[in-house]
Structure formats: structure tokens, C-alpha cells
Amino acid sequence: MNIPEKGSLLIAEPFMKDTNFQRSVVLVCQKQEDGFVGFTINQKIDHLVGDLVEDLSSCTLPLYDGGPVGKEQMFFLHCMPEIIPGGIHINAGIYWGGDFDKIKELVLTNSIDENKIRFIVGYSGWEGGQLEEEIKEKSWLCAPSNQELVFHTQSTLIWKNAVKLLGDEFKQIINYPLDPSLN
Length: 183
Known about the structure:
The protein has one domain (8-182): 3-Layer(aba) Sandwich (VC0467-like), CATH 3.40.1740. The chain is 19% helix and 33% strand. It has five helices and ten strands.
């Protein structure tokens, strides 16, 4: 069994029934004895940052559904530690959180690149042993993360590109339908 580390990607198996995670890719951001925390990075929602943050009402950057927990909270991932201080290093130049006042300043001056930041509502969480059991049941595949994938602006391609990271033996699942009875 492949136990994910901080910075790993969890790639949902193609026929996952849980609608929260169908064709999802989750970046694992915290690993502790009592469980894991991560953010789904490929589920864009029909709201913009400006819809949720009053100070940023003109912001047209997209929002992503990070998972079924904590839907009242907004988080962000970025790869700009030199201009957004205070973030937690995850992996491969990817950071979680940081100085939100600096984010506001960057957004208001149009100095932020959509390819370097991802705003997320909610998160994904697993209690101790839960994720390991789901991996054992083959609900998730694990791969290393990279900036290109985490900040990819075409969210519909992230799952397919993540599967490609697993190697040639997994390429066939890229084109599987959501419902195997349609195959």
C-alpha cells in the first residue's frame, strides 16, 4: 500500500461513487497521526473570489471546491513565497496560505497571476486510518505533485494529467466513462 506524504496527490479511481470526489485530484497538505488534510484542486465552482470576499468584489479569479469539510472557509495555494509571506511549504515550490492582506493588495493592483494561485472553498479530511483504508480498497492512487498540475488553469484536464504521472500502465483509465455500464 502506498501511504501518501505531505505534497502527494491523491487521484480518484475512475469509478469512485462518492460524488464529492468523482475524478478528483487532492493535494495532501497535512499528514499527522490522527489523519490527513488536503484540497481538491480540479473542481472549479460557479463562483469567483469576488463573490465571497467583500474587499475583493472586483476579483474575477475562479474558486475551487476543496472538499466536503469546512465549506464556510476559503483557503489558497500558491507558488509565490517571495511575495506572499507566511505560507506553509507543501512540496515542489507549492505553498498553503500566507499573508491574506498581501493577497488583497496583489489582487487589487492586478499583480497576481492565475497560474500561480488557487483559491479554494472547503477542504478534504480523513481521520487516522481512514485514508489508508480507502487506498487499500483502491479508491485512490498516489502520485507526486508538481506546480504545473496544481495550478493548471484547465481544471478539466488535471485528473487526466495526474493519471499520466502514474505511468503507461494507467493510461487506459483516462478514457473510462464515469459509469462503467456505459462502456
